[in-house]
Amino acid sequence: MQSRSEVTVFNRHLSEAEAAVELRPFDVICTMRERMALPRTLIERLPNLKLITIVGRSLPNLDMAAAGEHGVLVAHSDFANPRFRSVRDATPELAWGLLIATVRNLAEEHRSMRAGGWQTTTGMTLSGKTIGLLGLGRTGSRMAEYAKAFGMQVIAWSQNLTDEATAAVGARRVDKATLFSDSDVVSIHLVLSERTRGLVGRAELALMKPHAYLINTSRGPIVDEAALIDALRTGRIAGAGLDVYDAEPPPPDHPLRSLRNVTLSPHLGYVTREMLGAFYEDTVEAVVAWLDGAPIRIANP
Q: Burial letters for 104-118: b for 16+ Cβ neighbours within 10 Å, e otherwise?
């Protein structure tokens, strides 16, 4: 592909104003999940753009209608390809690691050690505790397996969850209120939609035990961010582990960056060598097909 095109890599976040200038010369934009928003107001300012490649079958922060209206094709990746099967544990593995780091205060203790100090916090043992899973799809089911290995009780809830589905992974289905009130750890594994936006708000956080933790590796807007910050500041819950945020990246002065009872990671759920290799293989394949005049996997035909 490089012999037929000039490739430019952007390794920093671009504001819309910056993107309108920096991306203007390009015929093709290759995205990595939701790292770069492509709203109508930006697409309208990119007159040379002819192809956008995306990871997955859709991109929430891409205006698909605007792309179509401006003659821009959108090529998606192929999650059905066997090469993706071996890397689908990337997100649940990160979620479990973030969970352990959060309940054992590893980030805070790491900062203390770096500063020349020693232990300053008390963590929580997982064995014998209850984990509540919001969502029991592929990632949630994997989390249930990990929890069982750690000797935890597993309860789960989502809008369409059945007793059969929960029993299949050794979990117990409960109602939403019970999940928040009975869990020592609540971990979110839902797709962001109009049904799930703001699903975890002040009422749900108020039901949680004071020693309980919230883990979110799904999408930031599923949780009411202001309500979560208030719960963390007041000690209403013990802490949170977050990989996703309302705005990504959050601004440098964002309150979550300064709270000591929060463990933060920069949306690393799918970021592994294996996963990125599969993503970019699809990207190159889509660009070459477009260069050949036979575009593939078009999301907006």
A: bbbbbbeeeeeeeee
Integer Cα distance of 112 and 34 in angstroms: 33
Tell me if residue 168 falls in helix, strand or coil. Answer: helix
Q: Which of 108, 219, 225, 285 is catalytic?
A: 219
pLDDT, tens only, 87-108: 678 999 999 999 999 999 999 9
- Beta-carbon contacts of 49 under 8 Å, excluding residues fewer than 6 positions away, are 23, 26, 27, 28, 29, 43, 70, 72
Q: Tokens standing for 229?
A: 């910050």
**For residues 290 and 244, what is the distance between their CA atoms, to the nearest angstrom?**
33
Lowest mean pLDDT: which of 145-159, 175-189, 199-213, 276-290?
276-290
3-state secondary structure of 172: strand
Q: What is the maximum span of the chain, computed from C-alpha positions, in angstroms?
A: 62
Q: Which of 76, 142, 189, 267 is catalytic?
A: 267
Helix (H) or strand (E) holding 17: helix 16-22
Q: Catalytic: 248?
A: yes
Backbone angles phi, psi at 75, to 5 degrees: -105, 125
Q: Catalytic annotation on 6? A: no
DSSP, residue by residue, 243-258:
S--SSSSPPTT-GGGT
Side-chain half-sphere CA neighbours of 135 within 13 A? 23
Model pTM? 0.86
pLDDT digits (tens, 9 = 90+) for 115-149: 999 999 999 999 999 999 999 999 999 999 999 99
8 A C-beta contact, residue 183 and residue 131: yes
Distances in Å between the alpha carbon of 244 and those of 118, 225, 229?
Answer: 29, 11, 14
**Spatial separation of the C-alpha atoms in residues 131 and 143, rounded to whole Å:** 9
The catalytic residue among 248, 254, 281, 297 is 248
Q: Is 70 in the active site?
A: no
